[in-house]
Amino acid sequence: MSRLISTEMQAVAQAEVVRPFYLIDMEFSTPLRLWTGLGDLDVPTGDTLVTNGDFSNGLTGWTTIELGTGTVTLVGDSVELQAGDFSNRAGLRQNIPTVSGTNYRLNFSTTGRARVIIRDMVNSNNLVNLNVEAGQGAVSFTAASTDTRVEIRNQEAGTITIDNVAVYYTQTYVGLGDLLKIGQIREATDLSANGTTVTLTGVKSSLIAVARDEDYQGKIATIKLGAMDELSNVITNPVQLFSGFMDVMIISDSGESSTINVSIENKLIAFDRAYVRRFTDGDQKIDYPSDKGFEFVTSIQELEIIWGRPSPRDS
């Protein structure tokens, strides 16, 4: 069975050093996010906020910066920034919508040292102002308003190429390292509903309380595969490997350490469940709360209706 390589996986394949990792999302009242490493990890997610970040539509969405002899040149699906010095610099900028207090990640590729300035336009403050070396650039920032400007420029002598600019919302995952284990994920050519398991060891008491007290059955659990470069930067959005419904959670407490084992059903299991609807007033109001069409169904049940002959009262 052949499969097209996604844009995300192409970025991973082109990286010089790749370190794979796994992510687990569990839908509790407070979402639980874990990864197979140590420490906290900010992971980009969702669609990019940048318009035309791959320059496939020319410079649409971008404002160019050309000071002195600095030039911005579109070359295929990338942009060349040529500069002589700070007074003769070149760059690109774009305003993006953000949410104050929310974490974001700017990703881009550059063939030389680039200057990145991320500015809060409402309060006129720079959130980031730093140099990024050649390679896959990754810059994290926390938005301070609803309007943030991203600027990438070349202010040193020479020419650099910029491509694949993206800004993603990020979510923070807690690292469990080897304490997080994932069962086999099987993919079949038919519509088999193959599930999997997730095992957490050395679990904190707070998580034990969640597992014990919350109504978790039927809630969504997702497993994703991500990749880092040699600098421990997440290369691109992780790819979803499996998504299903949490079913049975087994807690083992030895006194010294605790283990939680969660079985996760494939979403295809829903096709095996009977979808039962009835012609009753309560059932009708699930979809149409104000509909009274079935209001008297109960009262006419087994009611004898005389039709086409004299009723007993008339004889």
State the gist of this model.
The chain is mainly beta and 315 residues long. Helix content is 8%, strand content 44%.
Kindly list the characteristics that best describe this protein.
single chain, 315 residues, mainly beta, Jelly Rolls, 3 domains, 13-stranded mixed β-sheet, five-stranded antiparallel β-sheet, 3 helices, 8% helix, 44% strand, extended
Task: Explain the layout of strands and helices.
Layout: H1 7-14, E1 19-26, E2 32-35, E3 40-45, E4 63-66, E5 71-75, E6 78-83, E7 90-97, E8 103-110, E9 114-120, E10 125-132, E11 135-142, E12 147-154, E13 158-175, E14 180-182, E15 196-201, H2 205-213, E16 220-228, E17 239-253, E18 258-266, H3 281-287
Parallel strand pairs: 2-13
Antiparallel strand pairs: 1-2, 1-16, 3-13, 4-7, 5-6, 6-13, 7-12, 8-11, 8-13, 9-10, 9-12, 14-15, 15-18, 16-17, 17-18
Q: Considering DSSP H and I runs of 4 or more, what fraction of the residues is helical?
A: under 10%
- Percent range for β-strand residues: 35-45%
In the CATH hierarchy, the architecture of the largest domain is: Sandwich
What's the CATH C level of the largest domain? Answer: Mainly Beta
Order of helices and strands: HEEEEEEEEEEEEEEEHEEEH
CATH superfamily of the largest domain: Galactose-binding domain-like
The mean pLDDT is 84
Count up the helices.
3
- The counted number of beta strands is 18
Sketch the major β-sheet: 13 strands, mixed
Low-confidence segments: none
